[in-house]
Amino acid sequence: MYSQPTKGEWLPKRLWLGVLSAMTALVVMLGGSLLPFEMSHVDIAQAQPRIVLRRVEPAAIAAQIYAQYPDFPTESTYTLQRSGDVAVDDTLVSRLIRYHLYVKNRPPNFRLDWKLTIADYLDAFELIRASLYPSADVLSENPMEGDKAAVQSMTRQQRNQLSQALFDLFIGRDSEADTESAAPTSVPSEGENEQTSPSADDLLP
Q1: Residues 6+ away with beta carbon under 8 Å from 201
Q2: Helix-, strand-, coil-residue percentages of the chain, each rounded to 5
Q3: Are 203 and 113 in contact (CB under 8 A)?
Q4: Cβ atoms < 10 Å from Cβ of 118
Q5: 39-43, 93-97, 119-123, 139-143: lowest mean pLDDT where?
Q6: In whole angstroms, how large is the CA radius of gyration of the chain?
Q7: Among 26, 87, 118, 154, which residue carries the largest CB count within 10 Å?
Q8: Contact of 116 with 106, CB cutoff 8 Å
């Protein structure tokens, strides 16, 4: 027959249940990291794709882009206020990079953000403030209007090539191997994939 446990027999069981409850609460508080089937923080970090951003040197990056696309407008005929010398290294692309990074604080590792910056130059997205434009305080003339006109004179293919090249150079990818394929893939064909909301490409006429 079943016998009712005595008070002495209940004590170890109650103690065991208390220990079990405490361990369960500890696992919950630590987010389940003690469970053997959970990935550790190190494993998760190693599983994610690694993107290494290059050190920001706008003039050097601009020089690489002009070497790859010599037909891009340079807008480098402005003179310095102090010396009167022509600032040959102060180019359209270098100023666009500084505007993107330091004025708008946009990340360099997303191609969409570069397209939005170019859209600013087309008056299709956000207003560019002349007082904050790069080199406005060191050149004899504020280059903002000239830079906007230069970007607006570029073809859609050139603007897509520019955004792709900036993206590739900042994440350390060699874009020269993809030069021929970059333009067709970045310019959607007419009537392809109808969208319900505007994309960055819609802002670039």
Answers
A1: 115, 186, 187, 188
A2: 50, 0, 45
A3: no
A4: 23
A5: 39-43
A6: 29
A7: 118
A8: yes
**Confidence band for 48, pLDDT divided at 50, 70 and 90:** very low
> Which ranges constitute the DSSP H helices of the chain?
7-29, 41-47, 58-68, 92-98, 111-121, 144-153, 156-170, 179-186
Written as one letter, the residue type at 129 is R
Instruction: Copy the structure tokens of residue 80.
Output: 């310095």
Exposure pattern of 125-163 as b/e (b: 16+ CB <10 Å)? beebeeeebbbeeebeebbbebbbebbeebeeebbbbbb
Q: What is the mean pLDDT of the chain?
A: 77
Please choose, from the candidates 184, 183, 185, 188, the residue with its C-alpha nearest in 3D space to the C-alpha of residue 199: 188
DSSP-derived letter for residue 130 is: G
Task: Give CA–CA dist 144/92, Å, rounded.
Answer: 9
pTM exceeds cut of 0.90: no
Residues 43, 152: Cα–Cα separation, whole Å: 47
With tokens 């792709």, the residue in question is 164
One-letter identity of residue 18:
G
Structure tokens at 127: 């207003």
- Residue matched to tokens 């550790």: 40
Averaged over 150-177, what is the pLDDT?
88
Separation between Cα atoms, residue 58 and residue 170, nearest integer Å: 10
The amino acid occupying position 177 is A
